[in-house]
């Protein structure tokens, strides 16, 4: 064995972190393209003469693409390979960003956002999968969670860009600048290797071994090859029908409940429409966008804090406690709109939305990806997690297409209180069914879930 094939621990760690960072640019693009519409919409609406209904269509068109990308992405990821799927995703991100920036009418803009949605839906599957499959066990949790942190960084960056171009109403620049990180991702991926797990699934054992030897010692590589082979033999025994049998049904329902609660408390109403909501409260365009920058920064910072706490405090305390705070803040936000001509309503709303994002980021923001990766046995994790992913994108679409309509029908107070009530329903289910997964084996978690189902 040559020296080059046996990396030092530091070199192996650096290679893995570098590869994960390049792949996680897909998460940054996910966040940027979902967040940038919040500022751009203030200028797209008058440019194309859009009413509330068409504004919702422009926002929601991206989610339709994301649903399709999530539904079809699994077959592409498994058949085409992780690296090549990432390359395809980065190219689609680039094309969608440029088409959005050059759109001369709303129809072209909607098509461009569907294209971006396809990339987002696929990236939400392939980025965590690729990172998990190249990372050694000691780094896997932190590196996979990097994707969620990059999503929040992308949202924050989109708000900064929105504010930078607000004075000139430069919505085309806001949308088009997403091409910069997508091109960085595209060229960065060219130097990365394929997932060893995917290579082994195609019978390319020597290539899989070579891929592992880039970041593992020979002993570690052989042990991991054996473990991957055993896991793959287990996976071939399961089908989608098995997910709804008595053994796995409790975990599937829990994964769906986490994904549903994540969306039904209205987080993407804030991400997509915060400037619009704040403008309706009396703030000017620039002030509303600047306030959203603070909201995005809060989301990013508290996601980073939660990553540091999740393995110390545990999943259940953060999720139950944070969701409870989210619900209280939602009812408080609704109540603010009942105060007649209160001085500084925009400032109070901004503070409330920042509290909301802080609590959400430290709880439900991480939980959708983390819980779905832990409550399922390894043999069915990919198939089962896809159900939670589709739930996420489907409800995201429902939220995005209904925000302005619900405000018109029930006022902003009604909108926040509806989300609060839905949050209570989700919290009640999670309080009763969510086990603590910190430090427990997957088999132990599965056994406890089945025990609760029989109780």
UniProtKB/TrEMBL annotation:
Superkingdom, taxonomy of origin: Bacteria
Keyword Lipid metabolism in record: no
All copies of domain Major facilitator superfamily (MFS) profile, residue ranges: 19-438
**Localization terms from the record:** Cell membrane
The family database entries (InterPro entries) matched by this protein are listed as: MFS_dom, MFS_sugar_transport-like, MFS_trans_sf, Myo-inositol_Transporter, Sugar/inositol_transpt, Sugar_transporter_CS
Q: Which Pfam families match?
A: Sugar_tr
Its membrane topology: Multi-pass membrane protein
- TM spans (from-to): 22-45, 57-74, 86-104, 110-131, 143-165, 171-192, 251-274, 286-310, 317-339, 345-371, 392-410, 416-432
- Keywords, alphabetical: Membrane, Transmembrane, Transmembrane helix, Transport
Its family remark reads:
Belongs to the major facilitator superfamily. Sugar transporter (TC 2.A.1.1) family.
Protein name stated in the entry: Sugar porter family MFS transporter
Q: In which organism is this protein found?
A: Saccharopolyspora gregorii
């Amino acid at each position: 064995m040559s020296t080059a094939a046996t990396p030092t621990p530091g070199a192996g760690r650096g290679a893995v972190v570098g590869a994960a960072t390049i792949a996680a640019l897909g998460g940054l693009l996910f966040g940027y393209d979902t967040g940038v519409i919040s500022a751009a919409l203030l200028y797209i609406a008058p440019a194309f003469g859009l009413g509330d209904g068409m504004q919702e269509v422009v926002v929601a068109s991206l989610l339709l693409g994301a649903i399709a990308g999530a539904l079809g992405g699994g077959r592409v990821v498994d058949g085409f390979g992780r690296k090549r799927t990432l390359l395809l995703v980065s190219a689609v991100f680039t094309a969608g960003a440029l088409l959005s920036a050059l759109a001369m009418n709303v129809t072209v803009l909607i098509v461009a956002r569907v294209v971006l949605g396809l990339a987002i839906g696929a990236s939400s599957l392939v980025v965590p999968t690729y990172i998990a499959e190249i990372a050694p066990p000691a780094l896997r949790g932190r590196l996979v969670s990097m994707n969620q942190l990059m999503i929040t960084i992308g949202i924050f960056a989109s708000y900064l860009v929105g504010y930078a171009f607000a004075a000139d109403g430069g919505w085309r620049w806001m949308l088009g600048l997403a091409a910069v990180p997508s091109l960085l991702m595209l060229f960065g991926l060219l130097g990365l290797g394929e997932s060893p797990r995917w290579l082994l699934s195609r019978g390319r054992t020597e290539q899989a071994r070579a891929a592992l030897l880039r970041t593992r010692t020979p002993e570690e590589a052989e042990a991991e090859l054996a473990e991957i082979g055993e896991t793959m033999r287990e996976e071939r025994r399961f089908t989608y029908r098995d997910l709804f049998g008595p053994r796995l049904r409790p975990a599937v329902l829990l994964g769906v409940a986490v994904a549903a609660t994540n969306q039904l408390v209205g987080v993407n109403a804030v991400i997509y429409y915060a400037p619009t909501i704040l403008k309706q409260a009396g703030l000017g365009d620039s002030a509303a966008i600047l306030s959203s920058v603070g909201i995005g920064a809060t989301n990013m910072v508290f996601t980073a804090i939660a990553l540091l706490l999740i393995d110390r405090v545990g999943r259940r305390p953060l999720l139950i406690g944070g969701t409870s705070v989210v619900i209280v803040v939602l009812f408080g936000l609704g109540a603010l709109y009942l105060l007649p001509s209160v001085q500084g309503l925009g400032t109070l709303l901004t503070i409330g939305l920042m509290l909301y994002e802080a609590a959400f980021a430290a709880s439900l923001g991480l939980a959708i990806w983390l819980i779905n990766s832990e409550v399922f046995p390894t043999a069915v994790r990919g198939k089962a997690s896809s159900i939670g992913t589709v739930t996420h994108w489907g409800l995201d679409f429902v939220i995005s297409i209904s925000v302005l309509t619900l405000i018109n029908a029930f006022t902003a107070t009604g909108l926040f209180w509806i989300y609060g009530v839905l949050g209570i329903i989700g919290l009640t289910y999670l309080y009763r069914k969510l086990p603590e997964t910190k430090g427990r084996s997957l088999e132990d978690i599965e056994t406890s879930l089945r025990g609760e189902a029989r109780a």
